[in-house]
Amino acid sequence: MGAGGSADAMKFSDVLILVGIGILCAGFIIHGWVETTPISNEDDNPYEKSVHLLKGDELNIVVMCDEGSSVGTSCGGELTIIKDGEVSSQLDFQITADENLEEYFKADEYGEYKVEISLDSGSGAVDVDVKRALMLDFIIYPIGAAVLIYGLQKRRAEMNNGSVDAELEL
After folding, report:
1. What are the DSSP calls for the chain, one per residue?
2. CB burial of residue 24 (10 Å; 0-12, 13-18, 19+)
3. Which end of the chain has less neighbouring CB within 10 Å, N or C?
4. pTM of the shown model
5. CA of 19: how far to CAs of 24, 25, 149, in Å?
6. What is the pLDDT of residues 116-165, one digit of tens each?
């Protein structure tokens, strides 16, 4: 402690409460972080995203066209999904600035899938979202809640069993 002071040791219940809240906050950040990636026909390399999917997992791919694109107000390009070097799905598209392309892909087996999107004209943004069939990534919430509740109960028990400092006068 600075200035020659001293601090009491941190109690185990406080550590559990802190860890439980940290786990819950991390879960909210993991599931709430949505990132759209800008793409353009002037990019040297196509947009690529690699994901590991279990059987039954779904990819939701959204391509949006910018209104201020360099070639009018339309975007055209190609969306390709590749598994183990083989093309699983391929789609040529042409969209205008006021519409979005939404494509869904369901994995038929476990593996690494790569999404490639290239634009021939215009510019826009891409959002690739994974929807898990087993929802294993939501297990973080019950674990965080259990640690937090256990820490709160332990703190309550420590407060009830704590010693009382008092002066007795006779």
Report:
1. -GGG---PPPPHHHHHHHHHHHHHHHHHHHHH----EEEETT-SS-EEEEEEE-TT-EEEEEEEE-TT-SSTTEEEEEEEEEETTEEEEEEEEEEETT-EEEEEEE-SSSEEEEEEEEEEESEEEEEEEEE-SS-GGGGHHHHHHHHHHHHHHHHHHHHHH---------
2. middle
3. C
4. 0.69
5. 9, 10, 11
6. 999 888 888 999 988 888 887 889 999 999 999 999 999 999 888 876 66
